[in-house]
Amino acid sequence: MDTTPERAATARHGIPRLLHSAELRQVLVLALDGGIAFACFWFATLLRFEGAIPENYRITLPWFALILASVRILVNLAFRLHRWSFRFSGLADGARIAMAGAFGTGLFLAILYLLRNSGPPRSVVVLELLLSTLLMATARFSPRLAGLYIGSWTLSRRDGTLRTLIVGAGAAGEMLLRDLQRSNEHSYRVVGFADDDPSRLQHVVGGQPVLGAIADLPRIVRETRAEQLLIAIPRLPGRRIREILSLCADLKLRFKILPVSFLYFQERGAGAAMQDLVPDDLLPREPVAFGEAHASGPMAERTALVTGAAGSIGSEICEQLLRAGLGTLVLVDLNENGLYLGLRSLARRYPRARIEVEVADIRDPRRLEVLFERYRPQDVFHAAAHKHVPLMEAAPCEAVKNNVGGTLHVARAADAAGAERFVYISTDKAVRPASVMGATKRLGEEIVRSMARRSQTRFSAVRFGNVLGSSGSVVPLFREQIAAGGPVTVTHPEVRRYFMTIAEAVALVLTAGYGDYGELCVLDMGEQIKIVDLARHMITMAGHVPEVDVALEYTGLRPGEKLAEELLTEEEESSRRVHDKIFVADCPPPPLDLDARLEELVAAARLDHAPRVLQLLAALVPSYRPALRVLPDAAARTA
């Protein structure tokens, strides 16, 4: 007896393989079609003659039925109805069944005409067509319908299933529902839709009713006892998402959203593509991407140096440059641990790129000269800076040494090494600054503008507002406070800020930098968002009720903070749009004695003479009015 593993496997699996092979299934489907046609023709004849079939018809009936069954099999074969997907069939497949039925009946009558046979009564032909089409469609669609009902019943009895409402009954919502119905590997039990289109109200989509408009969400959620909202409206504006969160603030819901790309969830399946709603979704702008097409030449032939490469903005600049095909990238930062982790991450994703890491302090001009001489970068992105407003109020000398002296050193090194372009990362806090940090960043812009007027290097500054999720920003703080149960601390109920995502801000920085638009580029930040609204929306997204489950606490404005930021001064108002999201500001020329005054300022900072530093800052930036110095423990208060 042969007991080899191969023979044993054949013995165990041979019959199941045969029974489940595609070819056998297709043969069985065609045989079923033939049997349906034969039986329906016989039954139609019985109905026509009320059970008493005349003798002349009784003799020819088997032959007519056999011809008709053969015709149905051949036509269904031609229409590929034997290659049926019982799981993914849809409306177009149902139409194919109807067309095959009509074509088969026509071919049957044509054969009878050629045989010069009058054939069965016309009523029998019509009745058979209706019965055969109905039964063939039932045989094909019933497994899917049965699967839907069984899946819905299974979900209703499974622990952990969430009663789910889909916002959006359009193409994306219908696709999402169908994907969820085909799979039981999720915890969503859909109970209905909400949609603002009046033509869809009270309709049924995929077996689920459209229960009302988005404005009716509180009522719908309470009536259906929904526990989760799936937002299935691609490219839904951030304003509308904020409205949905405000409507549902006291309902303790979970939120998920489809990504903006139809292709993305068509490839992965809409259910698998659902993402948790995040603060980035609240922003009112379309996503922006940077690519090689934005650069002036092949990126593979270029070398770029990024300061502050371990920070949020610097690391994203590195990521997008390598994604665009940059040949050589030099990462510079004083944070050696951040550089090491960044190098590992980038080297894993871009193994063909040349990536160099240099631990360096931008306050050390000699170290920078050595680096620039070694790598000779064509493109320099200066993102290194001290940016924490309250901490810099307590340490103005450190702010000046890093943000002013460091910028001077990097700019001069880039000029001496013959770099093609230098891009300085600025902030909206540089507009009529109320803080030391804002004043030093304003002076960084002045340095760039001064260098642009006398250097062969194309110097430019890019100004934008807050970046969601960056290190030290309010979003990670709010997440931490919400996870701890609160309170969530906000400085003032009327504080407003401009926000961008990290990816969006960096894509525009690179677009502006490689576009060589001018000395000062300002990014279109859209509308300002109230920080307290952001806090409430984040609490709602976490499934809590603001000021009930998680408290809000107002701590008062900190030194150097303003209620609202600006993007342009009065002198810069005559800006021009050079890109759908980028403006170039017309700036007055910097003072002729800027270099000497900056050297005096940096010298005072090196001596740690804070009063003198504040005095010189106020003289260099007329709109800046220094506040009383604060103690370090005051600067550490929560955001």
Structural features, described:
With 639 residues, this protein is α/β, with parallel strands linked by helices. It folds into three domains: 126 residues, no CATH class; 120 residues, Rossmann fold (3-Layer(aba) Sandwich), CATH 3.40.50; 278 residues, Rossmann fold, CATH 3.40.50.720. The chain contains 22 helices and 22 strands. It has a nine-stranded mixed sheet with strand order 10-9-8-11-12-13-18-22-21, with helices on both faces. A five-stranded mixed sheet has the order 2-1-5-6-7, with helices on both faces. It has a two-stranded antiparallel ribbon with strand order 3-4. Helix 2 runs antiparallel to helix 3. The protein is elongated and about 120 Å long.
